[in-house]
Amino acid sequence: MLFLGGAILRASITDLYLRYVKQGLRPFLIAAGTLLVIAAIVALLQELRHLNRPEAKPDDDGHGHGRSGPGVGWLLLAPALTLLFVVPPALGADTVSRAGSALADNRDVAYPPLPPGDPADLALLDYGYRAVYDHGRTLQDRRIQLTGFIAPEPDGQPMLARIVLSCCAADGVPIKIGLRGQVPQAPANTWVRATGRWIPHTVKDPVNDADVPYFEVSTWEKISAPAEPYE
């Protein structure tokens, strides 16, 4: 429990927890890790007090019963050591190829104007909703900047993608944006920042038949993977 709670706290204090859950869950992870550490310390203190009793033997609970716990409890070390020493990669192109696009539910709402600035910096999911369900009305005549990783389309052409979380990585689904123009020539899972414009073109995702909007790239650059890889 001590190692597991400590591993959760380490992941929560650093950016490692962002590989598993959304940013808003950090306070809950810190609280859970703290409770585990406190519970472990209390249990250790009780065990030490018992061992220091003159009439108690190391394998006796004072009533003639053994205190040996089940060996399976040591399996708690497995996730603790994993959190401490193994940094898993974020979900990427492989998830994109196997899962359907996040644009599967109709968002028939009024979309506000784009934020000021040139280019307007948009999340991929925001761009997708505006392109598909608002038919690009708020995207016209604006330069737009999108950030994501490269994933191959079924025909092998690059597209821009990012994983969207509802809660944690287990429920992650991809948002997929097709590319035209100066398409980035980079390996899968390469993070890029692309600038360009909306174009009125969509295709159907072969996985779940959702709409996949397109983006006309004018310029792009490779970037390092962000600390928070998910939307």
From TrEMBL:
Residues annotated as transmembrane: 24-45, 72-91
One Pfam family of this chain: DUF1980_C
Protein's UniProt keywords contain Membrane: yes
Sections of the chain in a coiled coil: none
UniProt entry keywords in alphabetical sequence: Membrane, Transmembrane, Transmembrane helix
Alphabetical list of InterPro entries matching this protein: DUF1980, DUF1980_C
Ranges where the DUF1980 domain occurs: 130-230
Entry keyword annotation includes Transport: no
Matches recorded under NCBIfam families: TIGR03943 family putative permease subunit
Protein name: TIGR03943 family protein
